[in-house]
Amino acid sequence: MAIRKIVLQGDEILTKVCKPVTKFDQKLHDLLDDMKDTLEQANGAGLAAPQVGILRRAVVVLDDDEAVLELVNPEIVFTEGEQCGPEGCLSVPGKYGMVTRPNRVRVRAQDRSGQWFEAEGVGLTARAFCHELEHLDGHLYVEHIDRFLTEEELVAYYREQGYDMDEEGEE
Ligand code: ZN
Q1: At residue 1, does pLDDT exceed 80?
Q2: Is the pTM of this model over 0.85?
């Protein structure tokens, strides 16, 4: 297991459509393990394979219980409601913008051995599902915002919500 280098906004890797994963082999397992290590080290809420330079449809996301979910070839199958809140990205470090997302999202994906399963998330997890799956099609959250939030706006938002600033991760 290893920490991989995170690709930053401006690199054209982040604009490409990723190919489906077809081999559920050791190479995939190593990639997922490394992505989990990299996510943990960066204190993020989610990470997509293109963010470590691999153009395959695989993401890791913190679920509602803060466990790391591995989603291979994921698709959104159901959404409900709406939420608007600050969103960040490990490929756009230190910046946040307000993005509207569904409040509840269910995804269908394969695990590291190729078994299909469904997972559901609300709030931040639902947001992370949407954010990470967009990476697989070459999109960044910044496409949804008019401008980045100022530090003051961000702090004010979290105070209003009663959150501890240290809990918020980037995706
Ligand atoms: Zn991101």
Answers
A1: no
A2: yes
